Amino acid sequence: MSVNDVRDQLAASALERGDSTGAAAMSRRKRLSRRELYTRRFLRNRPAVAGLIIFVMIVLFSIFGGLPAKHSYLETDFLNLSAAPSADHWFGTNNAGNDLYAETVHGLQRSLIIALIVSTGTTVISAVVGAAAAYFGGSFERVVLGVIHFLMVVPTFLILALFSNRSGGSWIVIAVIMLLVNWFWPARVVWTLSLSIRERDYVSASRYMGVSGLRIVVRHIIPNIGSLLIIQFTLGVVGAVLSETGLSFIGFGVKPPDVSLGALIGSGADTVSSAPWLFYFPAAALTLLTVSMALVSDGLRDAFDPTSAAGGRA
Amino acid sequence: MVVVATNITYFLANAFLDPRTLFVGRRPPLTEQQVDTLLQANNLNSHESIFLRWWTWAKDIVLHWDWGNSPTGDPVNGEIAFRIGVSAELLLGAFVLYTIIGISLGIYSASRQYKVSDRIVQATSIITLNIPVVVMSLAIVLAAIGFNQKVGIRMFYVTGSSSADAHGFGKIVDLLQHLTLPTISLVIISYAGTQMLQRSLLLDTISADYVRMARAKGLTKAQAIRKHALRTSLIPVATQVAFSIPGLFTGAVLTETIFNWQGMGQYFIDTLNKMNINGVVAVAAFGALMTAIGAVLADIAVVVLDPRVRVH
Amino acid sequence: MTVTKIVGLPQSGHSDALLAVRDLRVSFPSEAGRVDAVAGVSFDLQPGRTLGIVGESGSGKSVTSLAIMGLLDDAASVHGSIRLGGRELLGLDDRAMSRIRGKDISMVFQDPLSTLTPVFTIGDQLVEALTIHGTMGRRQAAERAVELLRLVGIPRPESRLKSFPHEFSGGMRQRVVIAIAIANNPQVIIADEPTTALDVTIQAQILQVLKRAQEETGAAVIMITHDMGVVASVADDVVVMYAGRPVEHASVYDVFAKPRMPYTIGLLAAIPRADRRDAQPLVPIQGNPPILINLPDQCQFADRCPIAIDACRDDVPQLEAVLNASNDDDDGGGHDRDSEHQVACVRAAEIEDGGTIKGRPIFPVPEIAASDLAQVPRGERKPVLAVDNLVKEFPLLKGAVLKRRIGTVYAVSGISFDIREGETMAIVGESGCGKTTTLLEIMELAPQHGSDIQIDGHSVTGLNKREIRTVRRDLQIVFQDPMGSLNPRSTVFDLIAEPMRAFRYSSDKVEKRVEELMDLVGLNPEHSDRFPAAFSGGQRQRIGIARALATNPKLIVLDEPVSALDVSIQAGVINLLEELKARLGISFLFVAHDLSVVRHIADRIGVMYLGKFVEYGEVDAVFEDPQHPYTTALLSAIPLPDPVKERTRERILLTGDLPSPTDNSPGCRFVSRCQLHQSLEPDRQARCRDETPALTGVDGVHVNACHWR
């Protein structure tokens, strides 16, 4: 989880530079719209584009991969226990006879849904809470920061495990709990960044004009940390997939009959020398998912960062 | 903060873990009464008021530094003391290694920004940072097994922290054989965070006015970076590294599980699975303490490195 | 045509130039294409002389200096020739250049707050500069370091060596930077806007130090600046740059007395003067400097030039020697005196001294209607803002986690003034004197105990939140930084509409009013769907002004509204403000550090020092008869854009920096820096220290807070 924090900081520092210098620098150049510029920069970053393509393919696979499947992930084939990949079972089967292809598709879907819910939720909560705390200040800010600092001390992974252990492995419960223990890291980053935005003249200007506080947060602060939020969202997906995998691997996550990639790898790990395919396929899917998403978010960060010379070699 | 966090965990753990389930299905079946007595001895009887139990628990810690027993009566203290040592063996080495590797690679890639070598380092970091720990560790295990088979001797142990039959000098060799794989795995997944942070901070400072000023004085670019940019960029990196210390112990849960390393991480899973409430709380307390230590270390690092915050 | 064509200056054959730059070109890659930051600069620098390079932002003057130092980014491509004492510098690698930098050529940068490494002591950084070239041992260097610090005027140099940069003020840090620059007795010192980040009083000190440093080392100086006053004060020769090219090159007297390039003429006409009452409006240069990408081969100023003809767009005009109308029978021997004055304008020969062509001024003076209110005596006009005994104190905190209060910052200590209808009041002073705090305190509309603020005759004390909001309709603000005060993610329409929406104007009305306002401030209403980034600095400031006008306020508060703008743009915004005052009868409260601007625009002025007015009154009275020693010093520190006046006048140099405002004991706050105080007898001095002076004089016309004036 500290890794996520590092990444958030990197993103934040890049953007801070961005908002102050970038706009000024841009105006002097030929006028490209922001979106055009960002798209152009992103597309020039080949690893990021590759990441995006892989990610889209994975998503499509998780949605439509089930269509050509010959078996359901719930169905067990007693004639083929721990069978190696074959024409019938493309990815092989496990020791209970479940078709690994169907399981991988379903697990991927499950992991993705959890990740998307968690990441969307944390982004929204962290943006609102962090920005509001920074703008309103005073006792509200102190309370929010108190909660955040407290959550930083509490080993959240443990709480996560405690809750999900009790929930019996329902993915919805897991997603909600992950949301609850994940929002505060990004909220702190949003808070830090919003603090500097609060000091911008356009915020004071609105306040002196008699614009209400909530409106300032929504219209002036949050839009100006938009690029941070986008990056944070993509990183949040990676982070959520990773922690869900970890949880499921040690047995505190999604539980049978439901499967997620983590759970699949967990069971595959036990037979890694006897039936390695049980490990290879889900591991490959998982790695592709996280790495592609990470490349995308790295590309986005580069595109948003005006000091990045990667774009300067036109 | 640490105390509050620990107490909250105590109540949470009591609410979510039920040691009673341990005794279900025992043969011969135990009566309610017998279970109560067994649990009572370890201050875990859920029929007793939670506040009474909390009082006993807290009193023992404050007066005797006794963190209670597991449901089967094993003292948590002994277990924790042993496991902290085992974890430290693994984690300290890995910590030092990945910090050094991360910072040096960060400096290297920053000073060669946008050259091929920088791009390779960056790409590798993104990948290793985002390969799931489990996948990475298992891949290493597979590779080591393959290597062992090829060489014909067991160069690397893939599980455990030591063999029982090693003595003297052999003990060190044995330790290293066990230590290598989990350390590699930890270093690979952890160095990239430091590397990327160091790179981006150094790049920020390289373009700072005072680095240009140093060059204007007659320092070459390399000298200016080494003397003027590096020192300033190390300040936030040091803070970050110090803050990563608590994450080390919990973060090692998966690594310790995969390599069957009898450390704190594995203990944590163990306590959860075995409804060891007191154990869970002790782990949580340890984690919170580590966070606090990390924060203090971060402050110290800043004071040492940055004259601006020194008090006169 | 009576001009002689000379490419560049006399070739190095017979020249004793120390530094010879020939056809220097620098370009950078960028997102939108190649930026030609410098496109053909040539000049010679003679030993011991000072060359001023002036130009607005983006004119390529700083890039030129970095190219000479070899400190440009790797991405920049540099062509041409830079010879130092006959040795070609372009093409040398970093190692070879590093032996020249700091030893033969050294540099003073713009922002002293960021040019010293924060984690090393002043001594370390100075010693490093002395030892890096292997000419000196550490011990010897330490001794020399003390000597250098003393030379640049740092008190107690021995003990200050161990201090870190953050323990110094900006002015003191710039002195240290100068000490480092002269450490190895360089032949050339390049000063890149060395005083831009500093207050005028400190600027005067630093220019003095630079002059002493030059005398001490005998070095030639390249002074890069946008401030014509600074040039007039220090330069021997001047190069005026525009869009990456030199457009005029002459001795400092010629540039100011008989400029030949329309751009130079426009620039000089656009500067407000502190030393006289301008009878007429400033003359702005229309349009904006070009973007330096894919520039056509033509005079780059042609698009903004009122006298441009077709020939201007045929080719890039080269610097050519000017022949005076008096001696045009001597047809270009090449070595006559006139080759000292070169200009890149095809119509240069037609232009006469005083910036006229065929007897008519090149830049026509705009007309601004006079206000009806100006006829009404001040006493009969209603006050729109009355401030009574305004006080603002902050607790001074220390400690990261547990904050202890260790003192109080007395930012504003009891100032009173009023502003009448159609009147402009200015508050001036050094940074840190509390002028911006005063503004913000008024905007907060929540006076501290014992103070009162009245808007349009009604006190705001005791108003509830709702009523305060209503008051805000009459009171709007324009900020210093035109980029920072406009949300980059909102369209211009939304920006201007915001205050009206806050007061629930109907959307039809908002629509109409936005159009009206954009027209009023000189923006095209069709651009209302664009984002602020699509506008230049001056246009953005107009957006800010339009927004402030939206609710028809009685008073607009302006915090340094033109200080972030280039001179040629600044004049247009100042004229707009004057016009608004005349047409709408609006009042302004204006905070500025640029006294020339204040003199031009304000009716009344308050000079602030450490939270108090030391002098307050009508602007002409204060400027023509400054009474308080601080005002005298402040006015004498302003560099005038006139080399003759600038070099002959008596200058009062203030010593030291503005003390921190944490002391509230009785006595005059200016006593530590007061030149008058030092000349007094001891018993009179005691009165300065022990008794707080009150504002005395002709009430409402001109008052000052000095016991002896």
Automatic annotation (TrEMBL), chain A:
The chain crosses the membrane at residues 48-69, 112-136, 143-163, 169-191, 221-242, 277-296. It is a multi-pass membrane protein. SUPFAM superfamilies: MetI-like. GO terms for cellular component: plasma membrane. GO terms for biological process: peptide transport; protein transport; transmembrane transport. It comes from the Bacteria. The keyword Protein transport applies. It is found in: Cell inner membrane; Cell membrane. Gene3D superfamilies: MetI-like (1.10.3720.10). The keyword Isomerase does not apply. Keywords: Cell inner membrane, Cell membrane, Membrane, Peptide transport, Protein transport, Transmembrane, Transmembrane helix, Transport. Residues 112-297 form the ABC transmembrane type-1 domain. Its main location: membrane. PANTHER family: OLIGOPEPTIDE TRANSPORT SYSTEM PERMEASE PROTEIN APPC, OLIGOPEPTIDE TRANSPORT SYSTEM PERMEASE PROTEIN OPPC. Belongs to the binding-protein-dependent transport system permease family. OppBC subfamily. This is Oligopeptide transport system permease protein OppC. It comes from Kribbella rubisoli.
TrEMBL record, chain C:
It holds the Pfam family ABC_tran. The keyword Oxidoreductase does not apply. GO terms for molecular function: ATP binding; ATP hydrolysis activity. Its main location: membrane. Keywords: ATP-binding, Cell membrane, Membrane, Nucleotide-binding, Transport. It is found in: Cell membrane. It is a peripheral membrane protein. Residues 21-268, 385-635 form the ABC transporter domain. SUPFAM superfamilies: P-loop containing nucleoside triphosphate hydrolases. PROSITE patterns: ABC_TRANSPORTER_1, ABC_TRANSPORTER_2. GO terms for cellular component: plasma membrane. InterPro entries: AAA+_ATPase (IPR003593), ABC_Ni/Peptide_Import (IPR050388), ABC_transporter-like_ATP-bd (IPR003439), ABC_transporter-like_CS (IPR017871), Oligopep_ABC_C (IPR013563), P-loop_NTPase (IPR027417). One of its GO terms (biological process) is peptide transport. Belongs to the ABC transporter superfamily. This is Peptide/nickel transport system ATP-binding protein.
